[in-house]
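Protein details
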Amino acid sequence: MNRKFECFIGCDKEYECADIVLFGAPFDGTTSYRPGTRFAGKAIRSESNGIETYSPYQGKDLSEFPIFDGGDLELPFGNTKRVLSEIEKYTDRILTDNKLPVMIGGEHLVTLGAVRAAIKKYPGLHIIQFDAHADLRDDFLGEKFSHATVMRRIWDISGDKKIYQFGIRSGDGYEFEFAKSHTIMHKFSLEGLKNIDAGLNSEPVYFSLDLDVLDPSVLPGTGTPEAGGIQFCELLQAVLSLKKFNIIGCDINELSPGYDQSGVSTAVACKILRELLIVLGTKVNTNRPRTWGRTESSHPPQ
């Protein structure tokens, strides 16, 4: 990766001393409606200069935490299999170095690459998904690997009742039937998050935030806007509540900045990412043993 780029505000620490590694996965090769999420990482980094590093919600400053922004991966457009492999390889290296990966998509399929790496290190992995769409189709227009099938492909490797879905308000009827037996789905809102079994608190969790969980009136800049979504404050409170979980990796995806020329959608994404990073940074510093010894890859993964 090339470090000669504009990093997300406050995330300018060196890889060697970082607890959290931020990186982009600029891929939207299976987007079925409006493409453009491959530009999200660059837009978020650039527009992050419009917000403060300090969070009045948490009383903490993002710059206090050792976070390395590695920039966007160089991904081979047109080759979905290789894209997923590159994301898996990069995430695996971060996890091997006992750091926490945070990925900026890209379309939602990029989550599969990161989860493949995470589940190798944490075989009992649970996945929390905020999303407007179920993403549980077995195929979409004949394709097994699509942003519309990502949670089904994750189910293939995680098994039953390991995927917790929130805010879902769109999908094929079969997806909702499938969810009844195989996932834990909470439709329309994030309310059910507070009722998740406390036993999950010590289990490894991967968090995936599809920004189209927000109502289009809040975030119109996404590939498949879906009316009836949640409001910003509801999402913010849910993100803040994630501190009770053992998050070992996460992503934020499906911002398509070109569809909101006002820039508001990108500004919303920046603010949510800031709060998420502070939640993770606080959790890591408090509960996770820090591994400061040099490993065989004490430099940024390539």
Notes: The first helix runs from residue 40 to 47. The CA atoms of residues 9 and 48 lie 6 Å apart.
